[in-house]
Structures are given as C-alpha cells and as structure tokens.
Design brief:
The complex is a heterodimer of chains A (177) and B (958).
Chain A lengths: L8 H7 L4 H14 L11 E2 H5 L10 H8 L4 E2 L1 H11 L5 H12 L7 E2 H12 L6 H15 L6 E2 L1 H9 L4 H4 L5
Helix pairs in contact in A: 1-2, 2-5, 4-6, 6-9, 7-8
Chain B lengths: L1 H12 L10 H7 L2 H5 L3 H4 L21 H33 L7 H7 L9 H26 L4 H39 L5 H29 L3 H51 L4 H13 L10 H8 L1 H21 L6 H38 L15 E3 L1 H19 L5 H23 E3 L10 H25 L17 H10 L2 H10 L2 H74 L6 H12 L2 H31 L7 H31 L3 H28 L4 H29 L4 H7 L4 H19 L6 H12 L8 H20 L2 H16 L3 H25 L5 H21 L4 H8 L1 H41 L1
Helix pairs in contact in B: 1-5, 5-17, 6-7, 8-9, 8-10, 9-10, 9-14, 10-13, 10-14, 10-15, 10-17, 11-13, 12-13, 14-15, 14-16, 15-16, 15-17, 20-27, 20-31, 21-31, 22-23, 22-24, 22-25, 22-28, 22-30, 22-31, 22-34, 23-25, 23-30, 23-31, 23-33, 23-34, 24-25, 24-28, 24-29, 24-34, 25-27, 25-29, 25-30, 25-31, ...
The chains are: A mainly alpha (177), B mainly alpha (958).
Chain lengths: 177, 958
C-alpha cells in the first residue's frame, strides 16, 4: 500500500519545468477525467482519453505524443506532468528537440526515414492533397538538407542540429496545458 | 487629427461665420437623390468639403485661428504619415535583419516546425493545415523554379512583349481617364442636365480600370515565366503604377479644370472691368442680383456665378462693379461653369471616387467571389465539368492585391484630405466595413491563394510602396497649394494670394516683432544656403557610413555562413565517428575469426585494425595501461632468467633489426602521446579502481614478456643478422602487452559485468571497449584450458610484490590463466600484424632503458587491445599447438616479417624505424650491457615503478 502523499504542486514544479499554477491546472483537468471518488494519483488515463484533451484534440501527432509520453499506453498523473513539462516554455531546446524526434519517428526505428517523413507530411496536410511526386521531392529535399551523413534518414543528432538552427521551433513546439 | 483640430472647432464655433447655407435655388433640389449622389446639395455645404470652412482669422471666443489650423493640420498629416511610415520601415528592416538568414534548412523547418502545438481549436487547425499546404507548395514551387531550364531567347522576347503590353495598357488607362475627365468637363459646359452616367463617368471609369487592369496584368505576367515571387513583385509594381497613373491623371485633369476655372475667373474679372462702361442697361439684372445677394450671400448653384460671391467678399472688385459683375456673371453662366470653388470640386471628385471604389469593391466581392462561390458550390453537381477544380473554381484571396488596394485607398486619402477634411474619416469607416465584408467573403467563399509568397514577410515592400504613394500623392496637393490661388468665394483661405500666405500672415500679426525679424533672417539666403550645404554633407556622410556598414554586414554574414558549414562538417564528423564505431564493432568479430584462421595466413587485416584501435583508444585506458606497462618492465627484468627458457624454446634469434623497429615506434608513440600523458592523470584517477586488477594481469603478462625480451637479448649477440626470430619474440611481447590491455578491459568488464552495456556506452571513443565483453567470455572459457604455466611461480612472485596495489584477487585466476596462455600467444601473435607487434616490442624496450616510463607506456596500450583479442582466440583454439607449432609459425613469421620489413619499409612506421635505427642499436647495446645488470636497473626501475604506482593509486583513490 503506497503511502498517501500530500498534494504538493510546489515540489512537483521543482521537478518539472512547470509552474505551480500550471500543475494545478493540469491536475484539475486530469481529475475531471477520473471517476469522482477515486484518488487521481492512482488513476490512469488511457491514450484515448488523453487524446481528447482540448490541447491535443486537433494535433495531427496526438497519437504519437501519447505513445511517446505514456507508459504502456496509459497516463498516470506523473506521465501527464512529464509531457506538459516537455512542452512547457522553459524546457530546454535540446530536450524539446529530442522528444520532437521521438514524436516524429513514427515507425520507432530510431531514425526519421523517408517513410516517416512522408507520413508526417501527410498528417500535416490533413485532408489536403499533395501530388505524389511533390511528396517525394519534398522528402528528398528535406533529407538533402538535414541528412548530413547521407544515409537517407535523420538521426537524432542530425535532427537536433537542424532544429537548433530553426528560429521558430521553440515557438511551435509547445503546449500550454 | 483633422477631425480634432479642424472639423470640431468649425462645427462648434464656426456656425456664425462663413458661407454655410445652401443657396436657395439649390434648396429645391438639395434632397434629390441625384444631387446627393453627386455630393451636391447639403453635402456640398457640409464639413465634408473645403468650401464649408470660413475664412475668418479667428473664430469663437477663444480666438481659434481656423484657417491657420486648417493649413497646419493639412501639412501635419503629411508629415505625420511620413514619420510613421519611416519609423515603421526602420523597425521592420531591423527585424528582418535580425531574422535574416539564408536558411539552410528551409524544408526541414517547414515540415518539423510547421505544426503549432498550441493550436487547440479545430477551425484554427484547419486553417493551419491550409497554411502548411501553402508553405509547402511555395517551397516546392521555389524548388521547381530553380530547376526549370530556360530558353533564354524565348523568355526574353516574351518578357519584352509583356512589358510592352503592360506599358500600353498603362498608357491606355491614363489616356482613357484623361479623356473621360475632359469629356465630362465638356459635357458640363455644353449640357445643362447631366445624366447619372455622365456625372459619375470619371469615377466609374477609374474604378473599372483599377478593377480590370490587375487581372490583365496577371495574364500578361503569365507570359513572362518569372519566378513566382518576382512575378508577384512585378505584378504589384505594375498595379501600383497603374493606380498611381490613375490617380495622377485624374488629379491632373482636375487641376487642369481648376486651371481653366481660375483662368475663366480672371477673364471674367477683366471682362467685367471692360463691361463696366459698356453695359449700363442691366438694371433689372442688377436688382435681381442684389436680391439674391441679400438673400443668400453665397450663390453657388449652377445658375449663380461665382462673381456674385466674389463681390460680396472681395471689396476691391465688388463695390464699384456690382451691377456690372452681374452681367459678367451672367455671361459666365452661359459658359455653364458651376464650380466656382475649385477646392470643393476637387474634394468632391475624390470623395466620389472613393465612394465608387467602395461600391465596386463590394460588388466585386459579391459577384466575383460570393456568387461565383455559390454557383460553383451548388451547380457543380449538375454541370458538365467539375466547376470546383476547373474553370470558374472558387475565388482566390489575393493578399497582395488586396494590400495594394489598401495602399491605393490611402493614396486617395492623402490626395483628397486637404480639400475634403472628412475624407479620411469617411475612408476609415469604409475600410472597416470592407474589412468585415472581405473577411466574411474570404471565410465563406474563397480558397487560399495557391502561391502565397510570404506576403507578410515582404512587409517593407508594401511599406515602401506606401511611402512612394504618399510622396507622389503629396506632390499634387502641394503643387495645388503652391501654384493655385485659392478660390475667392469660399474656404478658409479665400482672399489670399496663396494658401500658405496664412502662415506668414499669422507670423506677422500674431507673433512678437522679434520673432518675425528672426524668421526673416533665417529665411534669408545667407542662412539657407549654408544650411542646405550642411544637409547635403550630412546626407553624404550618413550614406557613406551606411555603405561601410553594409560592407561589414556582408562580411559578417559570410563568416556566419562559413561557420555554419563548419558546424555541419563537425556534425558529419561526429556521425562518421559513430558509424565507424558501429562498423568497428562489426569488424571485430571478423577480426577474431581472422585471428583464428591467422595461423594459416590472415595477418594483414589485423594490423590495420590494431592501428585503428590505437587511434580510438580513450585516455582513460592509457592511465591504467601505463601502470601496467611499468610493472611489466620490472617483471620482465626480474623474470628474465626464468622466462628465458620458454622464450628460447622458441627458436628466436633476435636481430638488430627488430629492436630498431621497436624503438622507432616507441618514440613515435611517445611523441604522439606525450601530450596525452598529462591529460591522462585525470583519466588515471578514473581508472584507478581498475588499475589494481590490471596490475596483477600486467604482472602476469610481464612475465611472459620478460621471457621474450631476455630471449631476444640473449639471442641478439648470437645471431645479429637473423631478424626473423627476433620478431617472433617481440611478437610474443606484444601479444602480452595486448593481454595486459585486455586485462584492463577485462577488469572493467568484470567489474561492470552486471552493467556491461553501460560500460560500452561510456567508452564510446574506443571501439575496443565493445570488444571486451567477448574477451571476457573467452577468458572464462580459457581458464579451464590453460592449466599449465611455466612461469607461474615467477609471476606469482611478481604478483606478490605488486599485491599491495592489487586489490582484486578474484581476477587473479583469470590473469593466471592468461599468463599460462601467454606461451601460446606466440602463435596467435604471429597471426597478428608484424608491424604492430614490432611497435609494441619497441615500446617495451623503451621502457626498460628509459626512465620516462609514462610517455612510452601510455602509447602501447592503444595499440594492443585488438591483438589481445586475437591472442585469446588463438589460445582457445590452439591450446594444443604449444611450442612446436609456434616455432614453425615463428619461422614463417620471421621470414614474412623480415620480408615485410624490408619490403614494407614504405610504411611510415617502418620508415621511422629505419631512421631511428641507430638509436635502436644503442638501446640494444645498453640492453646487452645491462643484460647482466638488468636486474639492478630493473630493480631500481621496479622500485621507481612501485613508488610511482602507489602514488598513482593513491591519487586514484582520492
């Protein structure tokens, strides 16, 4: 029987990049997904529930985000905090880039390869149609830019490098929970 | 601003003054739609226009100087616009400078940074997706543009044609406008009643041209085949020129008219003076005129002449000529010149233009976008082709053109603001209304433009256009102000020669005398000319500074570029190193297998690997190795006698060549790693925990080594010429060293047996580490096999000496097994590349005579690791081979080695060895001499070593 811990947003905020306020807000949202009488700390949300959070609802990569940040497809409160922490403004660029890499590595082979790229683009375009050859041209262009060792896929280092030069990666890769 | 300083005071306090009432004749028609439409009637005499404002110098009780305010405000509007625009542009350019980067990762960023994770609302998500599509399309287009092959002749001719077409259409539009204005004037003169069309002809034509010409230009632009972005620029520039041309031709036509009006006035005046004597019979008319004048001081209607007004206002003409004036006015009436107040007239035209422009915009939005959208949307199902994707499609929202339209509107405001003070206010309302209409239309029935070329990022482009527009729009106004006499009958400046006289007048009358004097001085050429010169100089100076700054700017940018590429290179190197590591891992197993098969022939491959290993080894390993080496030397010295036998057992004839080879290598190594030694101290500390284990192993290894050395030394005097056997012996040594290294590695491994994988990661620098696990396993396997150890006792003794330092006994058995295996290693060693072995040997020798253990010692470890693995394998596989096979192998090896040495002198190592040959010999001599004394030296060295070792250990412990 785990010892009952007191609710300490301050402590949690020391462990994450989040402020107290953010943690309390997350906790509220989290609790709203839990059954009433139960302690939210022992509850786990499924990825599906997580994806229905307003912050993730329309994100084309929500399933990937859930996969990357959950353990075994479920979210404990800590998992959610961890995710929010990575997406907060204060997380370091490297950390963000790393998780972005995991999110974009759709087939989870440790590299962003052509296949990944194409499905990323497809996800981004939503329902919009892009010609097949354009898609291929785009992926080859991307690889040509960022694939420094010419192995036709992006490793974490390469991805990080490319992102570190980007002016708006930090702006775009954040979620305010 | 205008509202605050001009309109409000006029409304509040201006009522009792000026001519604000509508002439009675016009009252009848004032309510007609027709009149309202043409901005006549009530509107004409409202605050909307110049004519409404009174000319009294002061109004109200506070003495507000309205005319002055009118003039100053008019000027201030221009100045303010200028300043705001310039400020904004400067800010923008600063921003763009800050973010200016020749993006190397355009596509990456566009894809990976495209999604804004903050988006949490489906609509926003949809439009974001659309925006991403746009940006991606743009990127692709850009790419395609780059790749497009160009047929120069065709494109150039096409472009010329296109430009001619554009110029023609521009000229045509200007001519049409001029023609229309002219015609309308004629019509006004000849016709009494104008139709609706005739009245609004000018504005309608202008608006139509502004509507239609851009699409024509777009068609033309398709001919040119420019890059889409340049196409856009061209398009914008052309449209801007068109708009400007329209405005200009309009204003010029208007001013022309004004000119004719003022000329007419002048003529009228002069004719009036002529007619004073001639016409004396027009009393009735005079009476009539008097009536009118009494009733309404300002009679502006089409029937009333300006002169009546003038008379009432300007006493110079009026008093003597009133009756005659009437005739003149009548005569003028026949000319049908209704607009005695040209400022009002210009303002009216501008306002009319603005209104009609609004109507056309609304109409085009409704017709072109909305109804087309409806049509396409609802009829596409029952049409013969796909309406949505083919001909009519949905309208595209053309950001650029809409922005241009705004610019055009602004230009109209600037042009008309002076003559129609409420034009800006009206335009603001109009634009707000249009904005909402537009946004509705865009959201409901427009599709995003297919090529959005970062319209927002060319901010400064639009601002520059606006500035251009402002300047050009200001010119006519200023011209009019400076050139034309204000109309006499209306407005705040009536009765003055020029509009700007108001300023000088105010200065003269309302400021103290000294101020006036100062002003006259300041405006005298004495002051103005130097001031101008100074300004020119300033401009020149600033410009030159700007040029130099630009230059440095470019330089810095270049620097950044190069640094970036270097950055890239670094990353590449890192990546390459990683890959090599991976490959190395793959190879090592191969090496091992090679080693197994080495006996037969595979030797060449291993040396390479060893070499690579040397490079990769991490400083951490060095420290531990150093210690081990020193120990080995000592041990070797001690163990010589005992060890000799085994060494001798192998038919080794140490030749001078061997030592030579060895020494050079050692030196080289020393050179290479001398620097490393210093740094390795910290590494040593790290490795300290391991070192004790290493020592034991080393000791064991050393035992084997000393044997070889001794054998070599002994042999050396005997057989100087036979280098082959020596090599073999050396090889043995080297092999042992390798073993030592292995031990170290093993120790690490053993220690971390549970966390082996982590270790590997830690020691990424050297691929070797990764190999270790295998070695360890092998070791374990071997132990049972290697039960015999001729040198065992010696080794043990040595070990005992070292034991203080040696903490880990658990490793011992393994080390022992290694020691036992050592003899077998010879075989394995043969397999190893000769070069490597020679190097190793050299190192060993070096240590023995030279006191500087550290440098030399450090080097060997790097090279040894791979051989170790080989040896181990060999041991495993060849426990039975023992001495005999060794000897055979050795012979073979020796032959091969000698061959290789002689033949392969080309290799750097060998060359170096040759160069250092003499030194080697010396060392040999020393060796030989000291052969007997070796024990002493060794003992000394051993003492030193021991001393040093404990120190090191202590350090490590700390």
């Amino acid at each position: 029987m785990p010892r009952k811990r007191r609710w300490q947003p301050g402590k949690l905020s020391a462990l994450t990049f989040l402020t107290k306020k953010e943690i309390i807000r997350i906790q509220r949202t989290f609790q709203s997904f839990c059954p009433e009488e139960k302690d939210y700390r022992e509850e786990k949300l499924t990825s599906k529930q997580m994806c229905s959070w307003p912050e993730l609802k329309v994100n084309p990569f929500r399933d990937r985000i859930c996969k990357v940040f959950s353990c075994d497809g479920t979210f404990s409160f800590e998992d959610v905090l961890g995710m929010a922490s990575i997406f907060s403004d204060r997380a370091s660029p490297r950390l963000k880039a790393e998780y972005a890499f995991y999110i974009y590595d759709l087939n989870e082979d440790g590299f962003i390869d052509k296949e990944d790229l194409q499905s990323i683009i497809r996800r981004l375009l939503n329902t919009e149609y892009l010609k097949k050859e354009d898609l291929i041209a785009l992926t080859t262009r991307i690889l040509g830019e960022a694939d420094l060792i010419q192995d036709n896929m992006l490793s974490l280092a390469e991805f990080e490098h490319a992102m570190s030069k980007s002016p708006d990666f930090l702006h775009s890769f954040r979620i305010r929970f | 601003m205008t509202g605050a300083f001009v309109v409000l005071p006029e409304l509040l306090a201006g009522v009792p003054f000026g001519n604000k009432t509508i002439p009675t004749e016009q009252l009848a028609t004032a309510q007609d739609l027709d009149t309202i439409w043409s901005l006549g009637g009530y509107l004409q005499y409202s605050v909307l226009f110049y004519g409404y404002y009174g000319r009294d110098r002061k109004i109200g009780k506070a003495g507000y100087r309205l005319p002055l305010a009118y003039f100053l405000v008019g000027m201030a509007v221009f100045a303010y616009s200028f300043i705001i625009l310039l400020k904004k542009m400067a800010k923008n350019s600063r921003m763009s400078l800050a973010s200016a980067s020749d993006e190397n990762y355009t596509f990456c960023w566009r894809v990976f940074c495209a999604w804004d994770y903050l988006i949490g609302n489906p609509e926003a998500a949809e439009s974001k997706a659309a925006a991403i599509v746009n940006s991606i399309r743009e990127a692709i287009l850009e790419e395609q543009e780059k790749k497009k092959s160009k047929n120069l002749a065709v494109t150039i001719s096409l472009r010329i044609i296109a430009n001619i077409l554009v110029l023609l259409s521009l000229a045509g539009s200007i001519y049409i406008i001029y023609f229309v204005v002219d015609r309308s004037q004629k019509l006004e003169r000849t016709k009494k009643e104008l139709t609706l069309w005739e009245k609004n002809e000018v504005s309608v034509v202008v608006s139509l041209i502004t509507m239609l010409a851009p699409s024509a230009f777009e068609l033309v632009a398709a001919l040119e085949m420019y890059h889409p972005r340049t196409t856009l620029r061209f398009q914008l520039a052309r449209v801007l020129v068109l708009y400007l041309g329209n405005l200009y031709s309009l204003i010029i036509a208007l001013l022309d008219k004004v000119d004719s009006m003022s000329i007419a006035e002048f003529e009228a005046n002069s004719s009036a003076s002529y007619w004073i004597p001639s016409t004396t019979t027009l009393i009735t008319k005079k009476l009539f005129q008097e009536n009118l004048s009494t009733m309404v001081p300002d009679i502006n209607g089409s029937r009333n002449s300006t002169f009546s007004l003038e008379d009432s206002r300007t006493p110079n003409y009026a008093t003597p000529v009133t009756p005659l004036n009437q005739t003149v006015s009548y005569a003028y009436n026949t000319h049908n010149n209704p607009n005695q107040c040209w400022e009002t007239y210009v303002g009216q035209e501008m306002l009319k233009l603005s209104i009609i422009d609004m109507i056309f915009t609304v109409a085009s939005i409704l017709l072109i976008d909305f109804f087309r959208g409806l049509f396409v949307r609802y009829l596409s199902d029952c049409w013969c082709w796909d309406l949505e994707s083919k001909f009519p499609e949905y309208g595209e929202f053309k950001i650029a053109e809409n922005v241009l339209h705004l610019v055009y509107n602004q230009g109209m405001i600037w042009m008309g603001a002076f003559f129609s003070p409420c034009l800006p206010a009206f335009n603001v309302l109009k634009l707000i209304g249009l904005m909402y209409l537009r946004s509705w239309a865009v959201l409901t029935c427009n599709v995003p433009h297919q090529q959005v070329f970062r319209a927002s990022r060319s901010n400064n482009f639009y601002l520059a256009m606006l500035l251009f527009m402002l300047f050009l729009c200001m010119l006519p106004t200023i011209f009019a102000i400076a050139r034309y006499k204000p109309s006499l009958s209306c407005g705040p400046f009536s009765g003055q020669e020029k509009i700007y006289d108001i300023v000088s007048e105010t200065i003269k009358s309302d400021f103290p005398a000294w101020f006036n004097a100062v002003l006259t001085y300041v405006s005298s050429p004495v002051v103005v000319l130097p001031a101008l010169l100074l300004l020119f100089m300033l401009i020149y100076y600033l410009q030159s500074i700007a040029r130099s700054l630009k230059f440095t700017n470019n330089q810095l940018r270049l620097q950044i570029q190069t640094e970036r590429t270097e950055d890239k290179k670094k990353v590449v190197q890192m990546a390459v190193a990683r890959i090599q590591n991976l490959e190395g891992n793959d190879k090592r197993p191969d090496q091992e297998s090679d080693v197994i098969s080495q006996e037969s022939s595979v030797r060449s491959s291993t040396p390479r690997k060893n070499g690579s290993v040397l490079n990769f080894e991490s400083p951490v390993n060095k420290g531990s190795r150093i210690q081990t080496i020193s120990q080995s030397v000592l041990q070797a010295d001690v163990a010589r006698p005992a060890n000799i036998t085994p060494a001798t057992s192998t038919p080794l004839t140490p030749t001078p060549t061997v030592p030579s080879v060895q020494k050079p290598r050692a030196e080289q190594v020393a050179n290479r790693y001398s620097s490393v030694v210093h740094g390795s101290a910290s590494d040593l500390c790290k490795t300290k925990p391991y070192t004790p284990v290493a020592f034991k192993k080393h000791v064991e290894d050393v035992h084997s080594e000393p044997l070889f050395r001794k054998g070599i030394r002994q042999i050396n005097p005997d057989a100087v010429g036979a280098g082959a056997p020596v090599f073999v012996g050396h090889r043995a040594h080297t092999t042992r060293y390798f073993i030592v290294n292995e031990h170290e590695s093993r120790k690490k491994l053993l220690r971390s047996t549970s966390r082996l994988p982590r270790h590997f990661r830690m020691d990424e620098s050297g691929d070797i580490i990764e190999l270790y696990p295998r070695n360890v396993r092998r070791y374990v396997v071997r132990t049972p096999l290697r039960t015999y150890s001729p040198h065992f006792s010696e080794e043990e003794e040595e070990e005992e000496e070292l034991r203080r330092d040696l903490v880990n006994r658990s490793h011992r058995p393994r080390s022992l097994s290694d020691l036992r295996a050592a003899p077998r290693f010879y075989i394995g060693e043969r397999a190893d590349s000769q070069i490597l072995t020679s190097k190793d040997l050299s190192k060993v020798h070096y240590k023995s005579w030279d006191d500087g253990f550290e440098l030399e010692l450090e080097r060997p470890p790097h090279s040894y690791k791979k051989p170790h693995t080989k040896n181990v394998e060999l041991d495993k596989h060849y426990p039975e081979h023992h001495v005999k096979p060794k000897s055979k192998h050795k012979l073979e090896h020796s032959l091969t080695e000698s061959d290789s040495i002689s033949v392969g002198s080309s290799s750097d190592q060998q060359n170096s060895s040759n160069d250092q040959y003499i030194q080697v010999i010396h060392s040999k001599d020393k060796y030989l001499k000291s052969g007997t004394k070796l024990t002493r030296k060794k003992s000394k060295t051993s003492v030193d070593l021991n001393m040093s070792e404990p120190n090191e250990l202590i350090c490590s412990n700390v």
